[in-house]
Design goal:
The protein is an all-alpha fold. The chain has 33 helices and no strands. Among the domains are: 90 residues, Tetratricopeptide repeat domain (Serine Threonine Protein Phosphatase 5, Tetratricopeptide repeat), CATH 1.25.40; 118 residues, Alpha Horseshoe (Serine Threonine Protein Phosphatase 5, Tetratricopeptide repeat), CATH 1.25.40.10.
Length: 617
């Protein structure tokens, strides 16, 4: 759910290009590819890297593991490849990158030093070596390493901020603040400048400068959208500064600014309680090493989106080497591991969050969800129920446990859970409570209790009239039941207009057209859905049906076969195979177009966006 504004501006990041270059090794090594690769990902039994006995086998297996984000295996295999070709610079480059992304910072630093004159990875090696110098408190060395004269705005900002923290470590906070104040660049630079100037001034004891710069940061709405993690750090830093200075109300006012940006954010709630109870507040960033880590955290957080996993992993893991107990960094790493389908790794990060951290509640919620993803469903239910019992007012706990019930298709328990959540909300729900009613509606719809489902869908829309997931689900359900057809179709169209790039919602519109017998319109929308969400078996199955109805029978069979190859749900496999063999039955003139897919339901059952337990389809 990151805003794409900053990412569009930074699409030419040199460091990202360096990683891509280091990862593109097939050409230089094609001559070694006479042997078949030992592909770890394809093995059903645990893969033993030591079983590989050729350069090409090790290299190609390493690339497979690398692509699958199995960095630990990739590191082992790149090392084996180097045993066969110790001077291969390309393999050394990729080994260094995977070591860093795997959290092996000290090993990565050794290779970074060896590759410091290699132009292909110069940006990576300079940052890593500079961070290592700061970690060792060799600040003058860091200043020499981190000088950057290139044209890229992001790289220049990163190096200038790191230089500032090196100067701070060297006992020159005024020079550091002067350097930050003199930084020039695009508009998005402001949030980073103001936060780091404020954090550095606070660490130096310059309260007036810290207060001024942090206030500028938290009033930067565009910056908050582009870099939400940095914005929230600024909010919490200002609140802690004011609280420590005895300005309790000003501290709470700062927290309120954060609440207006993101509602029901657990760390802000915990910080507010801590301030109200008079607990002593400590700044998150107090040393040069923590400041340098905060620079990479800021940039990694802003870049965090699908497709940027490598560069974000590299930034965050390098930052973690300098600030291993950073709670928000651990949560961000956990979320990254989740996106990479590595729940065991995510659990390790969430468990590492300090127990007294304001981020602990979020980490516990995500930990529960990942336990379920690893097959430990009973443990996940117990864990999440204990979180509800500990704080029944935290509605995200219900959403987390409800997600586990939904995945387990235990809709009765899911409905009962959301009944309890609705009781907690009371008679006057707020806008941000729409998700509870939406999830309760889904539970009743799956239980075929439409008389209970529809009022909850309507309540969710009443609270949040432009929520595309609710519009899509309710609109499609009406079309599916051949009722409120015009209103239902309008709802789906509105959902598409709100999220035109969501393949699932576009599929709903195409499938609604199919149900209504508008087959040409169905084909147009379903083809677009298949482009937006490539590789989804349900969308391909729907497209096959639409092709069949417009007479494109060969293409229909191709799509059905493609759906089978994409591992659809078990219950759908015999239905699709029957269509491959016989096609669709002829429509009777008196038969509604929707009858042939009577039992289909909307594709999605997502938890609401913007929560800590967001689990998109």
């Amino acid at each position: 759910m990151r805003h794409s504004f900053l990412l569009r501006l930074l699409s030419g990041v040199a460091l990202a290009a360096s990683i891509a270059l280091a990862g593109s090794l097939a050409g230089p090594l094609a001559a070694h590819a006479e042997d078949k690769p030992a592909v770890a990902a394809a093995e059903e039994t645990p893969f033993d890297p030591l079983s590989v006995n050729t350069f090409s086998g090790a290299f190609l297996a390493a690339r497979t593991a690398d692509f699958d984000k199995d960095y630990e295996t990739a590191v082992a295999l790149y090392k084996i490849a180097l045993q066969f070709d110790a001077t291969n610079a390309d393999v050394k480059q990729r080994l260094m990158v995977t070591q860093l992304m795997n959290g092996d910072f000290e090993e990565g630093v050794k290779l970074a030093d060896a590759l410091k004159n290699d132009p292909a990875v110069e940006r990576i090696t300079a940052v890593v070596r500079g961070m290592e110098a700061i970690r060792k408190r060799e600040y003058k060395s860091a200043e020499k390493i981190l000088v950057y004269k290139g044209p890229n705005d992001l790289d220049k900002m990163m190096n200038d901020l790191l230089l500032a923290w090196a100067k701070f470590g060297d006992g020159k906070p005024k020079d550091a603040l002067k350097l930050i104040s003199g930084m020039e660049g695009p508009e998005w630079l402001a949030i980073f400048k103001n936060y780091h100037a404020g954090a550095l001034a606070a660490a130096a004891g310059d309260k007036s400068t810290a207060r001024a710069r942090l206030n500028e940061a938290i009033l930067d709405r565009n910056g908050a959208s582009a870099a939400p993690d940095t914005f929230l750090r600024a909010v919490m830093a200002l609140a802690r500064l004011e609280a420590r200075d005895g300005n309790k109300q000003k501290a709470l006012d700062a927290v309120a600014v954060g609440d207006n940006f993101i509602t029901s954010y657990a760390p802000l709630k915990a910080l507010r309680q801590s301030i109200e109870s008079g607990e002593k507040q400590e700044q998150q960033v107090r040393t040069a090493a923590q400041g340098a880590a905060a620079v990479l955290f800021s940039i990694g957080g802003a870049l965090n989106r699908d497709g940027a996993e490598d560069i974000v992993s590299l930034y965050l893991q390098t930052a973690r080497a300098l600030d291993p107990d950073s709670d928000d960094m651990l949560v961000l790493l956990g979320g990254l591991a989740e996106n990479q389908k590595k729940p065991e790794r995510a659990i390790e990060y969430y468990r590492a969050v300090p127990e007294k951290s304001p981020m602990r509640r979020i980490s516990e919620l995500q930990l529960g969800l990942n336990l379920a993803d690893t097959g430990k469903v009973a443990e996940a239910k117990k864990h999440l129920q204990e979180l509800i019992d500990a704080d029944p007012s935290d509605l995200r706990s219900y959403l987390a446990l409800g997600s586990v019930y939904s995945d387990a298709k235990d809709y009765k328990a899911m409905a009962a859970l959301y009944d309890k959540a609705a009781d907690v909300i009371g008679a006057v729900p707020q806008r941000n409570h729409w998700s509870i009613f939406f999830q309760r509606a889904i539970a009743h719809e799956r239980l075929k209790e439409w008389d209970k489902a529809e009022p909850n869908f309507r309540k969710a829309l009443e609270l949040n009239p432009d929520q595309p997931q609710v519009l899509n689900y309710l609109g499609y359900s009406w079309v599916d039941m051949n009722k409120n057809l015009d209103e239902g179709l309008d709802m789906i169209r509105k959902a598409v207009s709100l999220k035109p790039d969501d393949g699932y919602i576009v599929d709903s519109l195409g499938w609604a057209y199919f149900r209504l017998g508008r087959f040409d319109d169905a084909v147009a929308e379903l083809e677009r859905a298949a482009e937006l969400k490539a590789g989804d078996p349900t969308i391909n199955d729907h497209l096959g049906d639409a092709y069949w109805r417009v007479g494109r029978k060969l293409e229909a069979t191709f799509q059905w076969n493609r759906a089978l190859g994409l591992k659809p749900e078990e219950a759908e496999i015999p239905k699709i195979k029957l269509k491959v063999e016989n096609g669709l039955p002829e429509l009777k003139k008196t038969e509604p177009a929707s009858a042939e897919a009577k039992d289909e339901k909307p594709l999605q059952n997502p938890s609401p966006e913007g929560t800590a337990v967001d689990r998109k389809s």
